[in-house]
User: Fold this.
Amino acid sequence: MTGNVVRVGDEVFAFGETHLVGEIDGVAIRLESVLGGTRVVTLPTLLAAEDFTLVGTDAAVPSLPPLGMLDALPPAAVEAARRWEQHVVEVVTGRAPQAPESAPPRPGFDPETTTLAEREQRKADELSAAGQPVSTRTLRRMRTRYRAQGLWGLLDQRLLRTRTPYGRADERLVAAIAAAIAAETETSTGTRDRLRKRVRDALDAEHGPGAMVLPSKATFNRLVAAMTTGKHTFGQATTRRSLANRPERPFTPITALRPGDLVQIDTTPLDVMTVLDDGTSVRPELTYALDVATRSICAIALRPAGTKAVDAALLLARMLVPEQLRPNWPTVLGMRASVLPHEQLAEVDPRLAGAAGRPVIVPETIVCDHGTVFISATFIAACDKLGISFQPTHKGSPWQKGNVETGFGSINTLFSQYAAGYTGPNTTRRGRAVDGAWLLPDLADLVEQWIVAGWQNRPHEGLRHPRLPGRAASPNEMYAALVASAGYLPLPLTGTDYLELLPATWRAINDYGIRINHRTYDADALNPHRRQHSGITSKRGLWEVHHDPYDCNQVWVRNHHDDGRWITAHWTHRDLVTAPFAEFTWQAARAELARRGGNATEQAAIALVLDELLTRVGAGPAPAERKADRISASTRRAVARGMASPPDPRPPLTVVPPLGEPEPEIDDNLAAEDDELGEVIPFGIFDAHAEAERMW
Assistant:
């Protein structure tokens, strides 16, 4: 291979302008532009420029043949080319390639005594005598190709012919098939015969009936197979749509440098059947938050079908509240037994001393899809109150939260398939008569235990310790490493912070109290504020009331006259109901009362029906129950869903004293008065029966 040489002082054209080669230092070349300016580039960068030429010469820049492609060719063809190389080299130099330089040329091939034409004729005669007839013209052509391309030029050129992607198919046919394949993206999956008919109809409409004849069915199917590779045109429609939504550009990896830097949230049905209190088997919906930096599951919410916006808002609260070690959990699941820096964290918040072995992560940015659960005023307001950046993905772009999407598959693989009532990812993998085996609260408790014991301590291939890149780290290990390197410390929520996340409404404080959805709430602390203006002019003097839709026994009123402190007001008819109830349970009781011909606005009547529903749904239908008195199926499902709600994660409404300050002393008389008003429920497992006995 020969070519021009780049020397200092030469002119080269590259990067859209002419340069003067000012200096060459190894592979670095300093180029001085004739228009002014200097740049230093490497020789490969200069030669790789598409417009690179040597000014003042038309010689091509020497290039190496694609030697790596030799491995893709048949070994026999490569061996034949190497034999040709020996013959050509001997014709040119007089000695074989493997012969030492000190060896004399073969007789008749000495360049000093013979001409090139004579050596070519002698080599042709020699090969013909050996049983390989070759003309001097063929030998001369092989020598010329070897000089231009090396060994690559001696290969059988038929092997080097590049095929077009779709062979010799008519371009009009290829365009029609491509349009038909694109139209299949949003339609239900069909067969190749349907696609063939649509292509024929499109060609007839565009070029006239019979103007183009389709190839045979086998040829058409081969062409379609080549054009649908990787598109799932005849596979699952969901996969086809997902692949079509991928952007036609390189993917940018998502990087999070510290805990909470990026948290992804999503909801999907769990592949496990569970049992509601009425005996109905359903697939619950799992909503969970995943921290990208540590792959920690920050919090989960397991609900019957129909997750609400308030569920997502309460999920944020669960993320920011330490998960206390429950009485039925083994002590090895505690934070003290984990690799988390529990001593340092407990100094920040004493509640972490008795917490489960799962970190408390305060999200800075939350990424979610456009589901109605997340694109709602309740969830967005919760993020705004916590100072969290809310970033929904683009529509139809699930890969923008790929970590949480992939996590669902991991949860099904690592947990769901081992649980009783496992349904499989779809009906084709489901067994016969799969029923729920666990009550929803029990299943939620098992999932929580598995997250602490399994997920948080299992090495994740996507996590690498900064000082041990060759070893996969667990989420807890990665959290401990990033806490030390990023200087990150969580600030968990207090009880008042939790109340800020609850849905808010604005009501007047009347003589009888506060009225919400035909329920009256009252408390002695409201006496100074009855019929008073709240001071919020934009709300016409109404008072801000926060309520929990999963526990309607009390509401919280913000005291705008006392630095925004909270006043707890209880439902006036709570004595008539012996168990907690949700908002939709209340609505179901009103509907049941209306069906019986009663007044659906009278609280006492609704409370009696509600208590009856809760009792009868929990016990199941009696065989001798009269048809007129039976509970409707929709009402039974609504009540069961309310009773299946998981325990309330709300922390106690107390303020943790700062470190180094003594806790305030409590007056025994005041404590006795507080006991008469009601006991504060500590953070822990919600037991409906114990709660009923305690309160009533």
